[in-house]
Design goal:
The chain has about 270 residues and is of the alpha/beta class. Helix content is about 45%, strand content about 15%.
């Protein structure tokens, strides 16, 4: 007798991020259109839950409902939040920091399907994806300097993705750029007509998800470690990862087993 899993109860909270299962890949959709997909505490919590739900996927596509991809964290909610009850250490991660860490450590390749405007933490979300496809009408910006703050996450993530002068232009002018400019600056991989965005992201997801899951997982870790490394350091890292990845593909036939083996072998 085949065991059936109980259907997940639909609540307002779990509708903040929608999950579509497409076999070896998944589509995650931010769903607060009335707030331009600004990430409230509840939305961030749901986002982290959704990432766990798609942990076995090889590719995850991120997009938003409505006129915005993501307007960053919900600043209005954050401003009215009570002070923390306990001391927050210097090394502690904020909720949005943790969301970004979850993406970084997730075994899937992430593809941003940028459907509208993205601001602050929303642009961080794009920069933290391995690939990004932008609709022609989309835009992204880092406005924090304009209201007296250093862009804590969107600044470093932009600096790690763009040439210094391009990053400085966006940060110090507190400006937004259109999709064509984002492509010229190397912040997105391609720009497509608005009505072709999800179709193109789907093509990319289906292409990548045909590859071995463990190899994608290890390659993502290697790629992220090599960003901004010297040639010599990259060569050292690539030999370590290629040998370790080869062992995982041989010894662990499933993605979850390979993941456990990788974590054990890497000491993390």
């Amino acid at each position: 007798m085949t065991e059936t899993k109980p259907e997940k109860k639909i609540t307002p909270e779990n509708e903040l991020v929608l999950v579509e299962d497409h076999g070896d890949w998944a589509l995650l959709t931010l769903n607060r259109p009335e707030k331009r997909n600004a990430m409230s505490a509840a939305a961030q919590k749901r986002f982290r839950e959704a990432l766990q739900e798609v942990y076995e996927k090889r590719v995850v596509v991120l997009t938003g409902v409505g006129s915005a991809f993501c307007a960053g964290i919900d600043l209005k909610e954050a401003a009215s939040a009570p002070p923390p009850e306990h001391r927050v250490g210097a090394a502690s991660l904020s909720s949005w920091d943790q969301c970004m860490e979850d993406i970084r450590k997730h075994p899937a390749i992430f593809v941003a399907a940028v459907n509208g405007f993205s601001l602050g933490g929303g642009s961080t979300l794009i920069h933290n994806c391995e690939l990004a496809v932008a609709a022609e009408s989309s835009s992204l910006g880092t406005p924090e300097i304009g209201f007296g703050q250093w862009p804590v996450l969107s600044g470093p993530s932009l600096i790690n993705r763009a040439l210094p002068k391009h990053a400085a232009e966006i940060i110090f002018m507190a400006k937004s750029i259109d999709a064509a400019t984002a492509y010229r600056m190397g912040l997105v991989n391609e720009v497509v007509p608005d009505d072709q965005l999800i179709a193109r992201a789907t093509e990319i997801a289906e292409h990548i998800s045909a590859f071995d899951a463990n190899t994608l997982d290890w390659s993502k870790r290697a790629f992220r470690k090599m960003v901004n490394m010297s040639w010599e350091d990259s060569m050292d890292v690539t030999w370590h990862f290629s040998k370790a990845a080869g062992r995982q593909v041989t010894e662990f036939p499933t993605h979850s087993e390979g993941r456990k083996g990788r974590d054990a072998g890497d000491g993390k």
